[in-house]
Amino acid sequence: MRLVLLGAPGAGKGTLAKQLSTALGVVHISTGDIFREEVAAGSELGRKAKAYMDRGELVPDEVVIGMVKQRLARPDCKPGFILDGFPRTVPQAEALDAFLQAQQMPLDAVLDIEVPEEVVVRRLSGRRVCRTCGAIYHVDNKPPKQEGICDLDQGELYQREDDQPEAIRRRLRVYAEATAPLADYYRQQGLLRPVDGTGSPEEVLALALRLLKG
Ligand code: AMP
After folding, report:
1. Residue at 133 is within a domain
2. Contact predicate 161/125, CB 8 Å
3. What is the DSSP string of 159-194?
4. Which of 92, 63, 77, 99 is nearest to 28 (CA)?
5. Does residue 12 sit within a domain?
6. How many domains are there within the chain?
7. Across the chain, what does the average pLDDT equal?
8. DSSP string of 38-86, one letter each residue
């Protein structure tokens, strides 16, 4: 199955993508995670992306598109994939369409996770992430057993630079301007499936699986 997840920052794309990846047996590709890994590794790509990311702005289309094409060309994407955080602009969506068409790998569905803005702000400001495995926690909704430590691998939990209030506001503005129009883009292709993202991760997963089967 080939899926795209749309939704505002904090809508729960990463959480749902990880669960769907396990449930459907396809790879989870998060452009945000790839950029964070590149930043941590101090690579050329990481250096290019970091300033944009810290400000809550989008990395330029040509940088992201090249990176995603390379990733999708790898053999582990043959059985399918879940794209999380890509595309984020209409030019990215057009480039993805062209690439997938050439590979004869059309998308099966685009899940649009809908969450009211005040919920998103609360989720982002309380989010904590494991520095080593990327597991996601929340100080109120999903605290780790021991404060600041990942339950899975005892890695350090940190707050993303772009989860600070000023960057959150900018990311939501960027989302409304650049990314929200993608819902129309995919609706016109008959691929858009809205998902209510306000419930627990288990509830959202159940909704998503029902939509994909239906
Ligand atoms: P995320 O983890 O998806 O919230 O992404 C974190 C940051 O990485 C974003 O705020 C952007 O700076 C950058 N980024 C991730 N995916 C994209 C994309 N498709 N296009 C442009 N920038 C991106």
Report:
1. no
2. no
3. --GGGSHHHHHHHHHHIIIIITHHHHHHHHTT-EEE
4. 77
5. yes
6. 1
7. 95
8. HHHHT-HHHHHHHHHHHHTPPPPHHHHHHHHHHHHTSGGGTT-EEEES-
| End-to-end Cα separation, the chain, in angstroms | 14
Q: Give the C-alpha separation, 111 to 87, whole Å.
A: 12
Residues, the chain, total? 214
127 lines ligand 1 (CB under 6 A): no
Answer whether 10 contacts ligand 1 (Cβ < 6 A).
no
Q: What is the pLDDT of residues 108-144, one digit of tens each?
A: 999 999 999 889 999 999 999 999 999 999 999 899 9
Tokens 């396809």 -> residue: 26
pLDDT for 85 equals: 96
Tell me the pLDDT tens digit for each residue of 135-169: 999 999 899 999 999 999 999 999 998 999 889 98
User: Distance, CA 107 to ligand 1 centroid (Å)?
Assistant: 21
**Is residue 196 in a domain?**
yes
Ligand 1 contact via 32 beta carbon (within 6 Å): yes
Q: What is the CATH number of the domain that holds 16?
A: 3.40.50.300
Q: Quick one: DSSP state of residue 75?
A: G
Per-residue pLDDT at 146: 97
Chain centroid to Cα 185, Å, comes to 18
Q: Is residue 104 part of a domain?
A: yes
